Amino acid sequence: MAERLFLTSRLLSAEGVLHGFSLRGGGVSRGPFESLNLGRGVGDDPRAVDENLRLLAEAAGLAGPEAFAAAHQVHGDRVMGAVRGGNLRDIFTASEPAAAAAGEDGGPRADAVVALAGSSAYVERARRAAEIVREGRAPKVLLTDDGQLSGWSNESESNPRFVERAAAELARAGVPSADVEVLPQTVSSTQDEALLVREYARERGLRSIMLVTSGYHSRRALWTFRRAFEGSGVRVGIEPVAPGEQTPTPGTWWLSPRGWQTVAGEYVKLVYYWLRYR
After folding, report:
1. The domain containing residue 127 runs over which residues?
2. Which contiguous run of DSSP H or E holds residue 20?
3. Residues of the chain with pLDDT > 70: what percent?
4. To which H or E segment does residue 144 belong?
5. Are residues 169 and 246 in the same domain?
6. Parallel, antiparallel, or unpaired: how do β-strands 21-22 and 79-83 relate?
7. Cα–Cα distance, 225 to 13 (Å, whole number)
8. Full-model pTM
9. Domain count of the chain?
10. pLDDT recorded at residue 98
11. How many CB atoms sit inside 10 A of residue 239's CB?
12. Is there a domain that residue 79 lies in?
C-alpha cells in the first residue's frame, strides 16, 4: 500500500472546501529534509523537491507540480491567495485594508516606517525600511535605539551604536538623512519601543505606522504595538523582513546556536509577553 502523502478534514470537506495537509513521508528527500520536503529555500536538492511536488500532485489528482503556488512564510498579517498559473496575489496586507492608501507598488502606505532595534539584524531591517520609502509608501523612517555598541569602525575610529550603523545603512540605500529620525529615548524591549512610538505618534499627529522587523520577531512586535496603540486611532501595519540575510531560515534555524537563540528564544518571549501585557 502506497504511503499517504496528505490528510483531509471531514469538517472542511463537509463544507465543500477543497484542501489537503501534506505529511512528511512518502517523498524522496534525504538527510534533514527527509522525505516529502516541499520547500525550495531550505537547502534541499531542487531535483528532490521537484519530484516531491510531482508525487504530491499525482496523489491529489492534480495536473502536475505547476498546479502549486508557494510563498515565503513569515509571522506577519499578509494573507495571500493562489490564482491560476501558480501565481499569488494579496488578499489583504494590513489590518484595515480599506482605509490604507496605496503606494506606487500597490502596497499600503503609512505616515512613517518604524525600523525596530536589533543589533544582529540592523542591516536587513534598514534595507527593508529603505525599500518601503523608495516605493513611495512612507515619507520617513523612525529608528529606535537600544543603546548597544557595535564593533570597531575604522572609518569613525570608534565603536558606533547599532542605531548609527542602521542610519548609515539607510543612507547607503538612498534615504536622505532629513527623512530619518532616531527617537531620543533608549529602549530595552519591544514594549519600550511600542510606548515610545505611541507617544511620538500622538505628539506628531500620525495616523498610521508601518513596522519593519525580522520575520521571527514580527508576531510579537505586531501584537505588542497593537496592544499599546489600542484606542489611539493609529493604524499599525507590519512588513516583516524575509529571513536569510541576517536571520536563520525557517527550515534551518535549529541547526545553529544562533537559530536557537533567536527563533526558539522568541517563543519564550511570546509567552512572557502574553502573560505580562495581555
Report:
1. 91-277
2. none
3. 85
4. strand 141-145
5. yes
6. unpaired
7. 37
8. 0.62
9. 2
10. 34
11. 27
12. no
Rounded Cα–Cα distance for residues 22 and 249 (Å):
20
Residue 128 parent element (H or E): helix 122-134
DSSP summary character for residue 48 = H
Distances, alpha carbon 132 to alpha carbons 95, 108, 135, 252, in Å:
18, 10, 5, 28
Grid cell listed for 217 = 520577531
pLDDT-derived band of residue 76, with 50, 70 and 90 as boundaries? low
* C-alpha span between 166 and 23 (Å, rounded): 41
Pair (48, 128) in one structural domain: no
- Give the length of the chain: 278
Please report how the helices 218-228 and 190-204 are oriented relative to each other, as an axis angle in degrees rounded to 10.
50
3-state percent breakdown (helix, strand, coil) of the chain, nearest 5: 40, 20, 40
For residue 183 the three cell numbers come to: 527617537
Q: What is the pLDDT of residues 86-126, one digit of tens each?
A: 555 544 433 343 334 455 444 578 999 999 998 778 999 99
- The stretch 46-60 carries a mean pLDDT of 91
Same domain for 189 and 52: no
Residue 190 sits in a domain whose CATH number is 3.40.50.620
